[in-house]
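Model it.
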Amino acid sequence: MRYIVVGTGAVGGTVGARLAGSGREVVCVARGAHREALERDGLRLVTPEGEHVERVRVVGGPEELGELRADDVLLLAVKSQDTVAALDAWAPRPVAGGGTAGERLPVLCLQNGVANERTALRRFARVVGVCVWLPSTYLEAGVVGAGGDPLTGILHLGTYPPGRPEPVLEAVAADLRASRFDAPLPADVMPWKYGKLLDNLPNAIEALTGPIEGPDALALVDEARAEGIAVLEAAGIATVGEEEARAARGERMRLLPVPGVPRGGGSTWQSLKRGAASVEADWLNGEIVLLGRLHGIPAPVNETLRTLVNELARTGGGPGACTPAEVRERIATAARG
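Modeled.
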């Protein structure tokens, strides 16, 4: 199999580097300075045990690959706000022997949120959801860091919708296990992804207020999560609980310091730190807001977090621009209506 990493950022770069390091064939999709660095210096992965450099093929998009191979596997690792554009670029590409990528090739959604699989299924017949536990950071052009040890990450894989046959699933899982990941195959991956969604709700708080510490910030975390749980219960959506998730990780993936790499924040924090004009809050906190509206459950905490983070991204603000008290004041205003 050949793995095509669509979105060679923190997650895509780490998975691509580990797969390449175990001898798998990897193509990375990147543009601009990131592409130039990958072509010049290789894909550099910094981990607790040191730096690894992998020489991989790099392309700017599907056109440069020409006809795709029948054994290609697409690893979709872009942020959720970029999913549609990425899928639309790759789905119509021709595959050797006939047909298109959307008709013939599997696409694995290595993404936060729970909407990407449904979006992909509109364009691809073979969709695999992936619940990503992978502490990683985009450090600079061509360089990503990952602090998980001894496993770099845990990637639960499952077909979407559940029960659909996927001939390469076992082989992909085996390749990941040979590359410093665990790759469980639950019958239904979506409860894992909804559980991760709840874990991702505080991403917006961290991006807005900086490190989550102190009673005010921790109270916001509890409120955002409680609101999310109430909405998912009203919607009848099953989630994997915190205890089961912790048991799955165990001591197999501890977060260790990476030499020379300061500890940053989560994915939304990282996006604001890089000056990104968009973040994925609409697909994290916004998912709770959407489900709340569908089922008549108010979600003022998550609605305010979504709104504030989007405002910060649009205005070019960096992380830590608000205090917990300022966030709480906006929540109170939203709750009043």
